[in-house]
Amino acid sequence: MSTPTTPVSSRASTPTPDLEVVESPLYKSLLYSVRSPGALTVDAATEKNIPLENNPRPLRTFMNDSAEYWVDGSGSLLRMKFPARLDQVNGQYSRIGLYFNMPSTGLDVTILKRARAQFELRPLHESDPLSSHYPQEALDCSARALDTLVALTNEVEDARNASVEQTRRPGVSNFWRMYTEQDRYTFLVQSDLLFRDLPDPRALTMPHLSCKDIGRSGGLLSPSKSKKPVAASTNQAEKNAGLAQLGDTRVDSPDVRNEHGVLLNVNDYRTKLQDGDIVEVEVILKLWNIRPPKNVLPNSRDANGSRIYQLILRRMQLLPCAAYTKKAVQALHDPKGKRKATDELGGQSPAKNSKSSRKGHDIFDMDLGTDDD
What we know:
Elements: H1 19-22, H2 25-35, E1 57-58, H3 60-63, E2 68-69, E3 79-86, H4 109-112, E4 118-123, H5 136-160, E5 171-173, E6 176-179, E7 184-190, E8 195-196, E9 205-207, H6 223-226, E10 227-229, H7 236-241, E11 250-251, E12 256-257, H8 269-272, E13 278-290, E14 306-319, H9 322-332, H10 341-344, H11 350-355, H12 358-361
Parallel strand pairs: 5-14, 7-14, 12-14
Antiparallel strand pairs: 1-2, 2-13, 3-4, 3-13, 4-7, 6-7, 8-11, 9-10, 13-14
Helix pairs in contact: 2-9
């Protein structure tokens, strides 16, 4: 796997955290998260776990679409779990507002079929306001996620563009977004489609009668003659009227949970997800290969088609999380601790260690077990 160049880097040295920080719920939650099963550890980001051969690949039967997906070394769908920071204010690509960010001109069923929530996340960084509560492992894991995504993208682009002239290469929409002026990257994470069991827009009908038809209809109109398909209408009010026929439609809320592990409704995102919130996010990696549209102009952006890289949300957990903190505290009393506090607190003398609160340091001795414990 090639080595990407990104502006995200972890701290050169690991300073000793003070006891107040070590005991904070955020510190414990982050440490639990990056040591729990599924976290993007150093081993999880290796070529052994994410093989380059035959990756990404179509999974039509399993995923029911024509996109390509990354799989892990065992052939299972690859999942990446890492900590990050919500960027809802400064980010240009966040889509969690009212009405699912549909156009202000109105809603219609055709648009609802494409509605998704979209989250913009920043890798954790030592310049963040809460960085004193970040374990070094959390900083490393977050930076590793961006490095891995850049490296995987580079591998695909290098292989598929090897014999293609520069002017004939497809456009690329990356897993991340770049802000040149702020000199930073963000992750772009999308939910699955939000609405299920939507009616076929072609079958939706509504009464259609103009003012000039008043008195000329011959009396009570039959449904077959008085209606026309909503999808064929060019009038936005008529399109909106189709929303009244969504009785069987349901909203699939993505697995986004608050600090107590309670599932958040989609309409609560704007108020309960705040800029700068720390989250644990789990995603799958997806690649769409888009052919050039018909009658495309030779010099247009899509003249050669495009490749669209997507991070699809599987789970997002707000941190600190009460359950994570509880498991961390429980681990303090687990005699199977794998690492000694003195190893993590390198630089302190045994005398200073003996004077420190053992409760504050035992967090480093955690044997985390599994998420099902």
